[in-house]
Write a structure and sequence with these properties.
By secondary structure, the protein is an alpha/beta fold. The chain folds into two domains: 2-121 and 178-243, Alpha/Beta hydrolase fold, catalytic domain (Rossmann fold), CATH 3.40.50.1820; 125-174, no CATH class. It has helices at 37-44, 69-82, 95-106, 128-138, 143-153, 156-160, 163-173, 178-181, 201-210, 226-229, 231-243; strands spanning 2-5, 8-15, 22-26, 48-52, 89-93, 111-115, 188-193, 214-219. The protein has an eight-stranded mixed beta sheet with strand order 1-2-4-3-5-6-7-8, sandwiched between helices.
């Protein structure tokens, strides 16, 4: 199915079971609908389920301009209005988790699940490659070469992205949404691996304190994809959390 927002065609799958419960799944950077399907399948036959290819990924078009996290959240909200979805449950992994967090801070949300979701700007000490880039930028005539070097020295996500999506990625990683997290009132669940090198477990502990009604499920020894590494456990946790207030 297709939905157009800001002249951008967005691909999504919607399973309408005429349920009072609608679960929205948002994948991480560089991923697509398929990455969320393993934790969506248990709910597809009973609940209303919406899974989105975020703009720039899967079968969705890239944004025509540089979108912020707030633009992505607003896009999701416009799609919920199009589908007449009210008070959804949001489940987001990584980049999709950050979008879900912002959504829940702005719009009516029944419950929120964040899977290894970044929420603040991580300031790391300069490594060797970063020092090289900074040095090159200081030398007259080498500024352009430094920009080209980013393709080889940057993160895998950055190197694999198009020009437009690189700009979106930079805007995303430099945005701190800690204040937005403090505005969330709905029941919130965090699922995190202690060996996550993309978004540290320490960040999870801190995020739990920022959100008023929040709990943290810890997966000892698992990575940024802990939700898939312990798929059976994740689905059991989600069933319990989502169904806890259903009769």
């Amino acid at each position: 199915m297709k939905f157009v927002y800001k002249d951008t065609s967005i691909n999504y799958q919607y399973y309408d079971n005429s349920s009072k419960t609608c679960i929205i799944y948002l994948h991480g950077w560089g991923q697509n609908i398929n990455m969320m399907m393993p934790i969506a399948k248990p709910f597809i036959k009973k609940d209303n389920v919406l899974i989105i290819d975020l703009p720039g990924f899967g079968d969705s078009e890239e944004p025509k301009e540089v979108w912020s996290i707030y633009d992505f959240a607003d896009m999701v909200h416009e799609l919920t209005k199009e589908l007449k979805i009210k008070n959804p449950i949001l489940i987001g992994h990584s980049f999709g988790g950050k979008i879900s967090l912002v959504y829940a801070s702005k719009y009516e949300t029944r419950k929120l699940v964040l899977l290894a979701s970044p929420y603040k700007k991580n300031i790391k000490k300069d490594n060797f490659k970063t020092k090289i880039l900074k040095f090159m930028k200081k030398i007259p005539g080498l500024g352009g070469l430094a920009e080209k070097a980013k393709k080889y020295f940057g993160s895998t996500d950055y190197k694999n992205a198009s020009v437009m999506m690189r700009k979106v990625l930079v805007k995303h990683v430099n945005l701190d949404v800690s204040d937005d997290a403090k505005k969330i009132k709905c029941p919130t669940l965090l699922i995190w691996g202690t060996k996550d090198e993309a978004v540290s477990y320490d960040d999870a502990v801190e995020l739990e304190k920022l959100i008023s009604n929040c709990g943290l499920v810890t997966y000892e020894g698992n990575t940024h994809y802990a939700y898939l590494e312990r798929l059976t456990q994740t689905n059991n946790v989600l069933r319990t959390f989502i169904g806890s207030d259903e009769k």
